[in-house]
Specification:
The complex is a heterodimer of chains A (217) and B (787). By secondary structure, chain A is an alpha+beta fold. Chain A has 6 helices and 11 strands. Chain B is built from 32 helices and 13 strands. In chain B, helix 12 runs antiparallel to helix 13, helix 12 packs antiparallel against helix 26 and helix 28 crosses helix 31.
Chain lengths: 217, 787
Amino acid sequence: MMRRIIFSLMGLILTFTDAALASREDEAIQNVIRQLSAVTLINGQFEQQKQLQGLDYPLTSSGHFIFWKEKGLYLASEKPFFNASTITPTDIIQWQEDGTGRISEEQSGLIQREISRTLLAFFSADIKLIEERFATQWQFEEQRWQLVLTPRHDMVRKHMHSAELRGGQYIESLQIIGGNGDITQLTFTDITSSAAPTPEQCRWFYLSQVEQHCAAP
Amino acid sequence: MLLGQRLRHSFFLILFIIVSVLGGVLLVQQLTRGLVLETDLQALFPRDSDSHLINRASDRLAEEFGDQLLLAVSADEREQALRAADKLQQAIVDSGFIQVQQDEHFQSVAEQQSLLQAHRFMLLTDRQRAWLEENNQQELLRRAQAALFGFSAGAVLSPAQDPLALFGDYVQRLQPYMPGEIVNDRLVLTVDNKVLVIISASLLGDAFNLSIHQQLNPWLDSLRSQFAADERTAGVTLLTSGAVFHAAQASANAEREVAIISLGSTLGILLLFLVSFRRLKPLLFSFVSVFYGSAVALAINHWMFGQLHLMTLVFGASLIGVAVDYALHYLCKQQHLSLLPQGLQRESVLHHLLPALTLGLLTSLLGYSCLLQAELPGLRQIAGFSLAGLAASWLFVVSIFPLVFRRALPQPLPVVQQVADGPWRGLPTLGKKPLWFIGTMAAILVVVLLSQLRFGSDLRLLYQPTPELLHSERVLQQSLQGFAPNQYFLIRAASPEALLQAEEQFRREQLDPLLAEQAIRGYAAVSQVVPSRAQQQVNYQLQEAIYGEQGLASDFMQRAGFGIDIPEALQQAYRTAQEQWLDVSTWLEVARPDQRLLWLGEVDGAYASLIALRGIGDVQPLAAAAQQLDGVIWVDRVADMSRILKQLQQSAMVLLGLAYLAVIGLMWLSFRRIQATLLVLVPLTSTAVVMALLTAAGVAINVFHVFGCYLILGLGMDYGIFSYQAGANDASCRRAILLSALTSGLSFGLLALSSTPMVSAFGLTLLLGSTGNLLFAPLMSYLRRTP
């Protein structure tokens, strides 16, 4: 008899702590989402490390980035080659060194669009879109957080095995394991945030009518 | 004399028994096998006789698209749309006759990728080929750098295998064209501020299966009310696209119309009979005569064609108005003889009536048999149905009526005779001069109107979808921008290799410029995935500059930091791949269904393929492009069908002229008098007046109006013959003509209300024509008086 009471009491206590933990985690998740989605524009430096199948050493490149909420992500690597592109929700714009750009027709398929959209969702913490597409797993350690994502859709899984995001106030790193086994790791540093882009930042998000879109305030 | 009549009646009886037994056996046989009711309106069309190839292609397309359907929900809010989509999906699972399309498209993309990967050194996109031909190393390296150092999640091959990302770019084009995004395996689109969630599904059964149609509309209704009942999905619209929805609508319309027309004419005829004969027996047997005719027609037609078109039944329902004529004439004569002092001798009614009845039947049969020449299979069936039905009804009247109607019939209500005499009395009271004046003026007016006659052969005559169905079809097709199922290029050549080369030439010289001019938004061709051998050879040789000894790849990879062994392995793979041709047959095994149907294979000793088009603007440059290269045919089914309708109309008009000549001949043979040949003036004048009235109302005359004229001919000759034979003094004849015109008018008048433009054109022509016939028939009795 006594045993049963103890067991049920223990059960109750466990349930309470579970619920308390769950709500604390919920709160933490909401905090991260609030922080990330408050951002309109961030820019800074990035370093990319690619670990390719059949290659023992990583390929490293670095440069700077601009993330503008709802507009896209501009990544410009300076080392070892110049290579710049803007990932928008619908297209990928490839930039030449002279500043001219064109939409990459090779990268306009459904799968590529799906990946671009997902990537932008990471930066703006569009949790609804993320949860539609991925099984999520959060971990917290004081002010720092980590989110592991596994695609729900087979088609996406063929191209993206899993993704892992880490950060504090801003997103600080992103790791993507591709369907072919290649691992791409992006690390963001020197991040500053602003409410609106400067005209110089803005121009990388438009191919036409740049003056109209990017007039100085 | 009496003996002769008895013998003749016995002959009719024996014939009746033979027809009944044969018809009965056929009917039972067909019923046990199950009646097949065809509702596909396409079956009304002749198969394109010029080109077996075009038929083959359109059959393939019909097979592919026939059981495919799209269901979508449209809402203002994304949440709302997704929730409604859950309900839709559940309803599909519960329906039992629709299933959600499996994701085999993406399965196929993966299978194709591994096949093409094995042959990747044979493949290049047009842009890549241009870069290599121009030796544009800068572009090639830029693309390589982007692939290697750029953010490129989503690549198929690792840069170690495909350093210049050539293959990655090649397979990108294989993804099915799809705007929007995928959420929980569903396609989500935003169109005009509405969120659309599209589920593609397929039918478990044939799109023209009646039992599916009967389930479909209640299913859609219950789904809509489910949306409305839940406040979280209220205001969501359900959109549909697919052949089955049109077929279901057409068969629901036809069923409703058959019901309305049968009910309307039945009620009208019931009233007429009660007023005219004041007994139930005449009504009963008149109905039985029509029913008998219909049953025999059904048995024979179903046996001959193996199925019955629903349209045959719609027009068949109108047969009731014509076949009842024979019974009417018999009964009116019977009433008339009931007044005579000798009383009714057994065969006397038939004796008086048989020549006119038979001649009436023969003229109708002659008129209808010209319809048999029509190239529309559906209309041939209708003509066959009418011929058999009329003949059987006639046989019923001449063999059974003398047996069942022996006693005197009561006289009609006086009002019937007064109305019946109207047209006869009206004309003589006018006097000759005013009559000529009115006649001349009317004739001038008719001629003036006829000179304005317009012809039209719009395809919408055959079928007019409801605005809702048309709207949802448009929204879905526009947002998906799928390939046009009715407009495409067919290409023919002696061998598969020649065919692929022809495709490549046509694409290069014609289609790519058209694409650049935005005359089309896109196209799909087999040679886009599987190049010709000649092209593969060129592609392979061009890639020597990349994967050869001192190739671009080695240089680039070494600079990028790869070890020497990796480019060497790549060079080795390139050398081994030599002459590893990619064949169409191998590719077809892994191709998606929509890709497979691009390759028609061997047809009539040659090879054929089709190029599907997306977002067609103006068709003129496309038709012109096909002229530029031998073996290319521009197929436009919509334009072809309009053209066929036009041709049909022309041939139907010629056949109608022929029918008139045949009838004139028949009249001459029957009466041996010039005056008798003037009987054709009854239907001819009616036809002219009908055409004039339709023109005055701004209606363009189409093939179905012309078909209606055949019936005007049959009916008008009936009235003319009876009027001519009985003269102006036979009250029973006038009554019979009035009753006949009223019953025909009732049935055809109701056809004019049909929502299918062709049925309504047919009905309207006959409503006006019957009235004309009724008014002009009395004039024929004057012919008799002039010697």
